[in-house]
Structures are given as C-alpha cells and as structure tokens.
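Sanity check

After download, print the first record. It should look like this:
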Amino acid sequence: MDMMISNLQQQRQVTEQLRREAAIKRISVSQAVLEIMKYITEHEQEDCLLVGFSSQKANPFREKNSCTLL
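Expected structure tokens:
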C-alpha cells in the first residue's frame, strides 16, 4: 500500500514538472542564433579577448612572475 502511494506521488511530481516545462516560452533556433549574433556584435568592443586589455595588470591571463631559485 505504501509503495502504491509513493508511486502515485512520484507520478504527480513528474506530471507537475512536465506542466512547468510545457509552459516555458520557446523560440526557434534561427531566432536564437540571430539574437546571439546581435548581442555579440553589440558587445564586441567590451570583449577584452578581442580588443586587448588596457594594461598588463588588468589582464587576468597574464603570465605570473616566475619563481627564481638561488
């Protein structure tokens, strides 16, 4: 009996999850790609990997000071 109630609760949770997922607004892939391309072109001047860093210290990818052995 407990197993049947547990199974019923599990099925209700699955049903609720499916309802939530069905309610999500969807867009076509082609529209999503166009929006991504638009975002990229609008923000490419702010992308440090494309335009570089204002100073070497601002670069988090710079080579760290090497350790020298005496």
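If your output differs, re-run the checksum step. Summary of this record's structure: The helical segments are 2-22, 29-43, 48-51.
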